[in-house]
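RECORD TYPE: inverse folding
INPUT: structure tokens
STRUCTURE:
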């Protein structure tokens, strides 16, 4: 660390995360997440920094922003840079953390080559950006935390149905988006007529999709509403469709890990570098089936068999092994490594 850093401010981008609510599981935003393991990564980071004698707060907790030695900025957008400009923040004191892929936030990826020129370091999950760069720092996304003591409870819950898809109704015009695949899967099961899929999430069966980006209304009788607790809901199904926003190398979302941690088997369309991170015997690879008919027949054929139990066993073993690197502690260490480079 080339200069002393004692106080770090984080700009989360969402008003409901201010007042240090980003670090409080019992805060309003913590309750709104309905069990999603999001805040835990920032709590782990704050704890690690405290061990190093460094304070971490949301920026509004500092009475004078001039006392802030370094900033962490979640994502890049014109609004975030305008905020920095209004508060006369030197961008050489700001480390952006790229979380979303291009299909979600195309603006920050459109100018990706400029960020290392403006900032002392940039955190990303992309192996392509990190390769050969001294400014891009790799972190494992999405960092995940689970309760070991609840596994048997989740694993033994009665099953409501064969499959569940629990994701929002979104859309994107950017190449590589998988929102349309989610819709195709829903329509497939709807047309089968045998009710093998339940759908949960925001923006379905509603004309109001504006808060989800450039999406359009989508109606289906398979929709079950908003799950009160994602962990409990995942445990009520044999299989969980884990269809990410997109699958560039290095980009991993938490659903596949949540499925494993709740005794369900994830159906996953993985990034190309999946073999470096997740063992092939812990999930069902959506891309290895010719069509949905073949996939569905396979799912039905293994329920109640040793093959199904093997998927569950291997997934749980993986989460508890050294190979599993998508931990909140790993996230904290990787962010701290970027901070030390400044």
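DESIGNED SEQUENCE:
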């Amino acid at each position: 660390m080339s200069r002393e850093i004692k106080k770090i401010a984080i700009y989360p981008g969402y008003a409901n995360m201010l007042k240090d609510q980003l670090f409080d599981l019992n805060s309003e935003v913590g309750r709104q997440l309905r069990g999603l393991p999001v805040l835990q990564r920032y709590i782990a980071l704050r704890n690690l920094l405290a061990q190093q004698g460094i304070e971490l707060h949301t920026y509004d907790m500092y009475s004078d922003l001039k006392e802030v030695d370094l900033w962490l900025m979640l994502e890049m957008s014109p609004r975030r840079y305008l905020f920095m400009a209004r508060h006369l923040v030197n961008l050489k004191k700001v480390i952006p953390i790229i979380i979303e892929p291009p299909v979600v936030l195309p603006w920050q990826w459109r100018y990706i080559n400029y960020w290392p020129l403006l900032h002392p370091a940039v955190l990303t999950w992309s192996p392509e950006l990190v390769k050969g760069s001294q400014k891009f720092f790799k972190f494992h996304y999405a960092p995940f935390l689970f309760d070991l003591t609840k596994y048997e409870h989740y694993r033994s819950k009665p099953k409501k149905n064969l499959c569940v898809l629990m994701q929002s109704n979104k859309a994107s015009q950017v190449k590589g988006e998988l929102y349309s695949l989610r819709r195709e899967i829903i329509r497939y099961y709807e047309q089968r007529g045998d009710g093998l899929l339940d759908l949960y999430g925001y923006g379905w069966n509603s004309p109001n999709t504006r808060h989800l980006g450039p999406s359009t209304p989508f109606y289906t009788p398979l929709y079950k509403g908003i799950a009160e607790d994602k962990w409990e809901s995942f445990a009520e199904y044999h299989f969980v469709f884990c269809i990410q926003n997109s699958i560039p190398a290095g980009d991993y979302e938490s659903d596949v890990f949540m499925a494993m941690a709740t005794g369900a088997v994830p159906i996953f369309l993985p990034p190309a570098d999946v073999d470096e991170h997740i063992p092939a015997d812990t999930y069902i690879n959506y891309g290895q089936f010719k069509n949905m008919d073949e996939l569905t027949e396979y799912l039905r054929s293994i329920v109640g068999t040793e093959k199904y139990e093997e998927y569950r066993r291997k997934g749980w073993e993986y989460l508890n092994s050294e190979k599993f690197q998508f931990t909140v502690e790993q996230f904290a260490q990787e962010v701290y490594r970027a901070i030390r480079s400044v």
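NOTES: The first helix runs from residue 28 to 32.
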